[in-house]
Amino acid sequence: MYLSVFHQRKRVFVGPARVRVERRVLAAYRVLMDIVSEWARTEAKPAQVDRVDMAGTAQREYMTVRQLKDFIATHAERVPPSGESAEAHRQLSDRLPATADFQIADTKLFAEALEARLRDYVEGPEIPERLGERVEKALREQSLRAWSLIRGCSERCPLCGSKCDLVGEHSRHHCAHHLFPAFHGWMDRNTGLPSFNHCLGQATRLGTYECKDGTWRSLEEYLQS
Predict the structure, then answer these.
(1) In whole angstroms, what is the distance from residue 44 CA to residue 51 CA?
(2) Could you write out the three-class secondary structure of the chain?
(3) Residue 96 — φ and ψ, nearest 5°?
(4) Are 127 and 26 in contact (CB under 8 A)?
(5) Calpha distance 130→121 (Å, rounded)
(6) Left, alpha or beta for 185 (phi > 0: left; psi -120 to 50: alpha)?
(7) To 10 degrees, the CA torsion angle through 22, 28, 30, 33?
(8) For residue 212, what are the contacts with CB-CB under 8 A and spacing of at least 6?
(9) Are the C-beta atoms of residues 178 and 198 closer than 8 Å to each other?
(10) How confident is the model at residue 6 (pLDDT cuts 50, 70, 90)?
(11) Distance between CA 43 and CA 127 in Å, rounded?
(12) Cα distance between residue 56 and residue 59, in whole Å
């Protein structure tokens, strides 16, 4: 019953939300493609520039991925906060890893290769498939967490069979709605009739109970057996 309702609600809410998320992801990749193209046109230096240091040794300067990251961050600052692509710009400037600072020997070739790879990624099935897998995984985990809260603790009172009231992690169990032990099959030893001694009553605490080995013991010994 619970799973049927959960999946019905999932179809109503998750489908449209997934479409919106997919559009935002694709828009972010397209923004990245445009920025990389602009960076290659306006900021990129020649493939290598020779210079001479203090010791007279020829050195070669290269563009780096860090410079591309800085360009994206600067570009994001120029985008109006209310613009449609503002969020995509901010995400791109935040998501590029700071450790990615390797040198780029040929900026034009790097930009063309990166754009081509991004285009294949955007136009291919990988984004919808990965997004679908992550959504389904998150929904499964959410469903299990919700069901665990609905179901509650599985421990029961050994006398009346009422469930523990507590939810979440706990080491001591508690029940505030005990039934008569008769509802769990207990019979009075003396009369042979269903037992209507309340679980927390004195008669229950002072009584004796038949254990699995056929021996009659006190309540404490019965619970520990």
Answers:
(1) 17
(2) CHHHHHHHHHHHHHHHHHHHHHHHHHHHHHHHHHHHHHHHHHCCCCCCEEEECCCCCEEEECEEHHHHHHHHHHHHHCCCCCCCCHHHHHHHHHHCCCCCCCEECCHHHHHHHHHHHHHHHHHCCHHHHHHHHHHHHHHHHHHHHHHHHHHCCCCECCCCCCECCCCCCCCCCCCCCCCCHHHHCCECCCCCCECCCCCCCHHHHHCEEECCCCCEEEHHHHHHC
(3) -65, 125
(4) yes
(5) 12
(6) left
(7) -140
(8) 225
(9) yes
(10) low
(11) 30
(12) 9
Judging by beta carbons within 10 Å of its beta carbon (0-12, 13-18, 19+), is residue 177 exposed, middle or buried?
exposed
> pLDDT tens digits, residue range 52-103?
445 545 455 678 888 888 888 787 777 766 666 777 777 777 777 666 677 8
- Cα gap 25→31, rounded to integer Å: 10
Burial class (CB in 10 A: 0-12, 13-18, 19+), 54: exposed
pLDDT tens, 171-204? 888 888 888 888 888 888 888 888 888 888 888 8
| Residue 100: φ, ψ to 5° | -80, 85
Distance CA 162, CA 182 (A): 12
Residue type, 72: I
Instruction: Of 62, 1, 3, 75, give the one whose Cα is nearest residue 32.
Output: 75
